[in-house]
What we know:
Elements: H1 2-8, H2 11-31, H3 37-45, H4 48-80
Amino acid sequence: MLKRLFQSYPAGTIIRSALIFCFMLPGSLCFAQEKVEMADTMRSNGKIYVVVVVCLTILIGLFIYVFALDRKMTRLEKNKE
């Protein structure tokens, strides 16, 4: 999958995207240090675990979808040849 990603995009695009990500990451980490009341309230009520489970379910679903899509595309590419 990564091999196909690097073949489909020019090297400059990938490097530029990586640099943008690296420069934006420290700024977002600085904002993450603030105290958030909503998270404390949800944590004290035990509802933060519901939020975590929902987020993980969505992410796992997305990974499964991308994996299945990649397998279908690989199968179609093999049939095309």
